[in-house]
Amino acid sequence: MKNKLEHRAFNFEMEIKADDATGKFVGHAAVFNEISEGAFFREQISPGAFKASIKKDDIRALRNHNSDYVLGRKKNGTLKLKEDDIGLAVEITPPDTQWARDLRESLRRGDIDQMSFAFEVLREVWDEEDELRTLEKVKLWEVSPVTFPFYEGTDVSIRTREDIWNQRKSEIKHNPLLLASARGREIEIIKMRSNLS
């Protein structure tokens, strides 16, 4: 099955570097080991999840995931990415355009204070009992300062959390090994509960 593009958004503390005439945007587009609570499952990102993609992929910075508004690009150095102790650190040198200056003012005022990233899952681990998905390796497509969390662009197919969870349940149902593992855990839980009562 072909991987699908997903978006995630996080609050971030953004800094505009005053000593730079272009006013670089600095923040974190993702945070490691922080469990995000969803309606259908929980999710966290492991340190190292972005490392390979940062090294080899030509990643963009966009405004609200809109490819008409490119803020920076890794290939030419206007987008710098690295993993640090917090998560995915981002430094964007935006173009000297009116829409980028407008965005800078919105960031400065705090009207926009979240970032999002678009990615494909390359390796993930599921804890069925806790309904926890851990992203271990992803292909990073772009990062974006966004107006709303979990911003969905109109030009890509984006799965909702419910879609992902339903797909996972379907995989378990149709895969004998996953089904046996899930049933085994269910039996263990029933035994533990009966021992406690």
Quickly list its features.
single chain; 4-stranded antiparallel beta sheet; alpha+beta; 197 residues; 4 helices
Question: What is the secondary structure topology, with strand pairs?
Answer:
Layout: E1 6-11, E2 15-16, E3 25-31, E4 36-37, E5 42-45, H1 51-56, E6 60-63, E7 66-73, E8 79-83, E9 87-92, H2 98-109, E10 114-127, E11 132-146, H3 161-174, H4 176-196
Written account of the structure:
- This protein has 197 residues and is α+β, with helices and mostly antiparallel strands.
- The chain has two domains: 6-159, no CATH class; 160-197, no CATH class.
- 27% of the residues lie in helices and 37% in strands.
- The protein is built from four helices and eleven strands, in the order E-E-E-E-E-H-E-E-E-E-H-E-E-H-H.
- The termini are far apart.
Low-confidence region ranges: 149-159
| Residues in β-strands, percent | 35-45%
Assign a percent range to the helix content: 25-40%
Rg value: 19 Å
In short, what is this structure?
The chain has 197 residues and is α+β, with helices and mostly antiparallel strands. The chain has helices at residues 51-56, 98-109, 161-174, 176-196, and strands at 6-11, 15-16, 25-31, 36-37, 42-45, 60-63, 66-73, 79-83, 87-92, 114-127, 132-146.
